[in-house]
Structure to design on (445 residues):
């Protein structure tokens, strides 16, 4: 019995399969060719900027510190101040500024001829490595964060980051010469992790501390500034030091003009007639006025040990002098109006009618007993009418009188005491004038 071997595919079937394969493979080949042409056109449409960014930041690690010739990159810091304000009560300074941060990365440079002469790239700051900049002497309640801005990358591999910032720092204030004071403050800006810092604004040798574009404050202006680098074991920072001067034109009208008026009025009380009780009232008004100024200073100025403003000391000294002046005026009023049983001592009377009286301008007062009877009701006599006693001549016979054998009239006796009171006023005027001059010189008022 013969067995027939059946082939899986006959010759005719094999021919059919080959024809089907050819029909399928030809369209696929044409489609592959079309895809190749399409990808080539897409590659041709990629811009030079996209190619540059792709080549620069492929396998880029934003946490890795850049290097220059195998060494960690150097960080350059600069500060451009826009506005300044000082809080005297809390001893703080606030600056609105732009922080300029520069560093170098050799791996991020390129040949501009290969990329259509592109020299700079603007990159979001979260896509590149940045140094962690910190204000070491910060005094704000919230940490001073830098605003997010773009970073400029140049073709030589240099990065420039200029974020705006509002820095609030502590400042050791010296208020002795307030309101004509100058304050020197420091901003300690650096990083805890990097020690390669320097104070350099940019490659054109501009100052690290720039305040030429400063918006003029109503009270402060920067008169000088400089920088210095401070290196510690584990960190380093740049000190931006500047001196700010207060604009004091307003204080001249608010503080010094009233002070001048107070001094003039305090001295003028010594030239009023000794019988006037209004002198004491005038001193009391001046005392209340000075007390009001001292309360104003207490609200305006901080309490600083050893740095009390000279103008405050001047007002305090004036308050003490006015208190002493009030006591003196009480004594003068008593000498001029009291019912004296004794005459003025002879040696004092001789001084009042001698050269001392001439120096004190007492010669213009004439004893009423020396005037004609028709004129005794005028001038000083009229002022003394209120202080002549009804039985004054009887009082002069008291055994307490200095010289009862030569008892003067009541009007002449009263005149001598008024003359003594006037002399006390004139002497106090000279003494207080000298004291105020010394205070003005010492406290530079």
């Amino acid at each position: 019995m013969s067995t027939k071997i059946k082939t899986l595919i006959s010759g005719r079937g094999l021919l059919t399969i080959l024809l089907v394969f050819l029909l399928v493979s030809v369209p696929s080949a044409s489609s592959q060719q079309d895809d190749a042409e399409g990808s080539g056109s897409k590659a041709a449409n990629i811009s030079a900027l996209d190619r540059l960014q792709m080549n620069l930041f492929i396998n880029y690690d934003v946490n890795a510190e850049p290097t220059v010739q195998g060494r960690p990159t150097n960080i350059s810091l600069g500060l451009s101040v826009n506005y300044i304000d000082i809080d005297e009560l809390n001893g703080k300074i606030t600056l609105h500024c732009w922080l300029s941060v520069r560093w170098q990365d050799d791996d991020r440079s390129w040949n501009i001829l290969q990329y259509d002469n592109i020299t700079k790239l603007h990159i979001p700051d979260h896509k590149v490595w940045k140094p962690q900049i910190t204000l070491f002497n910060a005094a704000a309640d919230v940490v001073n964060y830098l605003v997010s801005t773009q970073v400029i990358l140049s073709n030589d591999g240099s990065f420039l980051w200029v974020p705006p910032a509002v820095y609030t720092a502590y400042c050791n204030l010296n208020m002795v010469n307030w309101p004509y004071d100058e304050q020197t403050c420091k901003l300690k800006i650096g990083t805890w992790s990097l020690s390669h810092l320097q104070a350099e604004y940019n490659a054109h040798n501009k100052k690290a501390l720039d305040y030429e574009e400063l918006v003029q404050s109503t009270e402060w202006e920067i008169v000088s500034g400089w920088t210095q680098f401070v290196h510690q074991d584990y960190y380093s920072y740049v000190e931006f030091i500047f001196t700010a001067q207060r604009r004091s034109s307003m204080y001249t009208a608010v503080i010094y003009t009233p002070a001048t008026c107070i001094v003039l009025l305090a001295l003028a009380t010594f030239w009023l007639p000794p019988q006037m009780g209004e002198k004491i009232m005038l001193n009391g008004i001046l005392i209340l006025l000075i007390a009001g100024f001292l309360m104003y200073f207490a609200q305006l100025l901080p309490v600083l040990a050893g740095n009390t403003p000279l103008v405050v000391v001047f007002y305090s000294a004036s308050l003490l002098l006015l208190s002493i002046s009030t006591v003196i005026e009480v004594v003068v009023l008593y000498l001029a109006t009291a019912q004296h049983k004794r005459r003025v001592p002879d040696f004092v009377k001789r001084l009042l009618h001698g050269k001392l009286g001439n120096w004190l301008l007492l010669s213009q007062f004439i004893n009423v007993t020396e005037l004609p009877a028709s004129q005794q009701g005028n001038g000083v006599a009229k002022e003394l009418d209120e202080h002549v006693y009804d039985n004054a001549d009887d009082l002069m016979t008291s055994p307490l009188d200095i010289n009862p054998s030569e008892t003067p009239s009541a009007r002449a006796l009263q005149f001598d005491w008024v003359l003594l009171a006037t002399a006390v006023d004139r002497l106090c005027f000279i003494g207080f004038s000298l004291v105020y001059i010394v205070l003005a010189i010492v406290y530079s008022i």
Notes: Residues 11-45 form the longest helix (35 residues).
